[in-house]
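Hi Y.,

Following your request, here is the sequence exactly as I used it, all 267 residues.
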Amino acid sequence: MTAPRRSLFRAALARSDGPALGTWVKLPVVESVELIALAGFDFVVVDLEHSPIDLETAYRLIGTATHLGVAPVVRVPALDGGVVQRLLDAGAEGIMLPHVDTVAEAEAAVRAVRFPPWGTRGVGATSRAGAWGALDRAEYLRFGQEEVVLIAQVESALAARSAGGIASVEGVDALLVGAADLSTSEATTEDDPRVVELIAAAIAGCTAAGKPIGNAGGATERSVRAAVAAGYAFTMLSNDASLLGAAAAAAVRAGRSAGARPTADQL
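Below is the corresponding structure, written out as C-alpha cells. Let me know if you'd prefer a different format.
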C-alpha cells in the first residue's frame, strides 16, 4: 500500500525557513513551469482570470508542475462548478477564486471544490487526480477533502472587513490579498492609508481564524521582507511574463552599455 499523497502547497506553508514562494503563470507554455521549477519556487498559480490560457493548456501545465514537484494551483475567473471539477481532476492541488466578498460566497466556493457531504464535486477517479483509476477510491476522495486547497481572494473593502468570517468557513484554507483590485475598488492607490488599514484588518481577521494569508508582490528581497513583516505566510513573486520581460530588458541594457563607444573624457 502506498503512502497517502500530501499537498506540496501545504508542505511549503509548514516550512520554518520563510514564506512559501510562488508566481503566476500567464504564458500558455509548459516551458514556463519547467523554468519556475528549476528556479526553486514552491508553487505556481496558473492564471485563467488574466491570461489566454484555456482548460487544455491548464491541464498540461498542471501535469508538468506535478511531475517537477511544484504545487499547481489554478485561479479561475469566476465560480463554475464544472470548470472547478475538471481542473481538480486534472490534478490541480488547489483552486484560487477571485472577488470573494462574503461568507456566503465562500460557502458556495467550498461546495464547488469539495466532495459530499461538504460540497457537490462529482467523483471522477479515472482522471489524473485518481491516477487514471489506479488510485484507491478512498484515497482519491481523502485528497480532495483534506489536501486540496481553496484560496479566497480579498479584493474589496467588504471582503477585507469580512476576512475573518470568510477564513473561518470550513473548507476555505487560505486567503490572498489582491491589493491592486482592492485599491482600485476604492478609487485610490495601494499606499493610501485607508487601503493599508483594510489590508491590515484582513490579515488580522484571517490570522485570528487560524488560516494562512498571502499576497502578490514584486520579485525582490525587499518585497518579500515586507510581506513577512506584514504577516503573510505565502507570497507571489511577480509572474512568468514579467520575469522574462525584466530579464530581457536587463540583458539589453547590459549589451547596450558594453557596446557603447567611450566618450572623450573616458579615454
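Residues 98 and 181 are 10 Å apart (CA to CA).

Thanks again,
Q.
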